[in-house]
Amino acid sequence: MEISLTRIILFGQNIEKLKNFYVDNFNFSVIEEIPHQWVVLNAGSIEIALHKIGEAYLTKPDDDFKVTSNTKLVFTLKTDLTLFRQELLKRGIAIKEIKSFDGINSLFCDGEDPEGNVFQLEERL
Fold first, then answer.
1. CA 110 to the chain's CA centroid
2. For residue 36, what are the CA distances in angstroms to 6, 16, 23?
3. Is the Cβ–Cβ distance between 32 and 39 less than 8 Å?
4. Which of 18, 81, 82, 88 could cysteine-pair with 93, CB 3.0–4.6 Å?
5. Is the CB of residue 87 less than 8 Å from the CB of residue 107?
6. Using CA atoms, how far apart are residues 114 and 45, in angstroms rounded to an integer?
């Protein structure tokens, strides 16, 4: 199984301000954007994504996820996400259901490490 860290997501309230900061000060280029919601920056060998934080993360969630960080590590799999997710569940790892988004050709699921840090697994289709 091959897994690689491909993206770090930073959650925030003012995505335009964050985007301008990284573009203006670090000369990162924008490679994907949904205005005021989502921006992906080319930061060399890894991408930095800026994601407007949702209401669910501003209040205490109803599930077992603690979400105390504004950062998410994204690991891209070169294997079947469904099978890998099942293996993690067998190991007792907290992991959410697989999801997809319109216009994005990938499957995703979020998990949590023993310290409460959120990670995302991505299978590109």
1. 8
2. 23, 6, 15
3. yes
4. 88
5. no
6. 27
The answer for 112, left when phi > 0, alpha when psi is -120 to 50, beta otherwise, is beta
How far apart CA 106 and CA 122 sit, in angstroms, is 6
Give tens-digit pLDDT for 61-105: 556 555 566 788 899 998 899 999 999 999 999 899 999 999 889
Query: Structure pTM?
Result: 0.70
CATH for 3-124 is: 3.10.180.10
**Nearest of 84, 70, 76 to residue 117 by alpha carbon:** 70
Query: What does the alpha-carbon distance between residue 114 and residue 107 come to, in Å, rounded to a whole number?
Result: 23
**Lowest model confidence (mean pLDDT) among 8-17, 23-32, 67-76, 85-94:** 67-76
pLDDT at 125: 92
